[in-house]
Every structure is written in structure tokens, then in C-alpha cells.
Amino acid sequence: MAILTLRPTGDASIQLSRSAGSYNYTCVDEDPVSDADYVFSTEAMAVNKTDLYSLNTSGSIGPINSVTVYARAKYGTLTLGPLIFVTVNSAFGDGETLTSSWTMFSKTWTVNPATGNAWTWNEILTLVAGIKFWCFNEITTGEGWCSQVYVEVDYTYAPGMKISVDAQWHSCVPKISVGGIWKTCIAGWVSVSNQWKRML
């Protein structure tokens, strides 16, 4: 088993407010996590707002076992917080109740919810992920904060991957010697002469 971690690199579609900066994704992309900045929704009415982020997508070789979206969230200064739903593309996980403490929420999809079939690496390359805050009670107020979103792709490493360097094929296990220098293969890719080459 291998894990590929993807983090936000852009705003795909945003409806939430941000505590700082010019872009929402910069409030949820930190590693390690920082609760100093966050995206939020504060409404004196029903809340139904979604943020989706583009990711630092990468490819690899081997069957994909699952895709899991993680989101760290809490309710803010108001005591009646909304529900949080984590989302991949246009599919949402189950709604979970926020508390006053920062908590990690997650949802795992073993197949692509849009197709019902196993995930493909082409689909990972176009993946977007995020959260939705929802409050069904129009009488009360709901306030949700989120300080981190990321995705983990669980896949089975395919041994025997090879790469062509200077017209010679080399195996990646999971490092490769290029010009006498050992380079690490990252999710099926390796940097050679400042260019990323894909393992085949």
C-alpha cells in the first residue's frame, strides 16, 4: 500500500469567506496544520455554502484502492454550528455536527462516486475537493470554520516500474541511480535534469 497526499493549490469554486489573504485555498493548505487562518461561513439564516479546491495532483502506476478527503473544522463564536460535509468533485459525504473544538472530519470513496467504477489516475489528475457548511434552521445562526483540507489517495504500488534516462531503462525500487546520484521516485515520477519523468 502507498499513500499519495494532495493539497489545495487553487480555488476551483468558492462560496465561503476567508479570515485572511486573497484566496480561500491559502487558508486550508498548510502542512502542518495552522488554525491561524481559515475559511468560514457566518449566517443569521440557513447556511448552504461550498468551497472546492484544485489540488497538486500527480500521477502514478498501480490500482487505486480509495480516495479520502480530510477537513479540520469547528464552529466559531456562535454556539449553534452547522453541519459539515466533505466533498470530492460533486459528491458529498455524510453530514457531521461541528463542535467547539477543532476536529478532523473525513470521508472515503473506494470507487468514483460519479461513475461507480474504480478510480483511474486520469480522474485523480482532475480531482477537486473541499467542504460544505449547512444549517437547516433558518431561525438560529450557524457559524463554521475550516482550517485544513487535503486528500489521500491509497493505491497499491506497482513494482518493476521503469524510466528511460539517456536511452537506457532503469528500474525504480523506489529509488533510481541517475549519473551516480540516487533519486527518490515520488508517486511514479522522478526528477531528471530538472524535468519530471514518469515511470512506465
Protein described:
The chain has 200 residues and is mainly beta. The chain has 2 domains: 2-155, Sandwich (Jelly Rolls), CATH 2.60.120; 162-198, no CATH class. Helix content is 2%, strand content 51%. It has 1 helix and 18 strands. The strands form 5 sheets. Strands 1, 3, 4, 6, 10 and 12 form a 6-stranded antiparallel sheet that branches. A hairpin with a 2-residue loop joins strand 15 and strand 16. The longest helix is centred in the middle third of the chain and has 5 residues, at 121-125. The chain is globular and about 50 Å long. The mean pLDDT is 80.
Write the H/E string, N to C. EEEEEEEEEEHEEEEEEEE
CATH class label of the largest domain? Mainly Beta
Count of DSSP helices? 1
Helix content: under 10%
Mean pLDDT: 80
Q: Looking at the structure, what is the overall shape?
A: globular
Distance between the termini: 18 Å
Indicate the CATH architecture of the largest domain: Sandwich
Beta-strand proportion:
over 45%
Write a brief structural summary.
This protein has 200 residues and is mostly beta strands.
SSE blueprint:
Blueprint: E1 2-6, E2 8-13, E3 17-18, E4 39-43, E5 47-55, E6 64-75, E7 83-88, E8 91-92, E9 96-97, E10 103-109, H1 121-125, E11 128-135, E12 142-155, E13 162-165, E14 168-171, E15 175-178, E16 181-184, E17 189-192, E18 195-198
Antiparallel strand pairs: 1-12, 2-5, 3-4, 4-12, 5-11, 6-10, 6-12, 7-8, 7-9, 7-11, 13-14, 15-16, 17-18
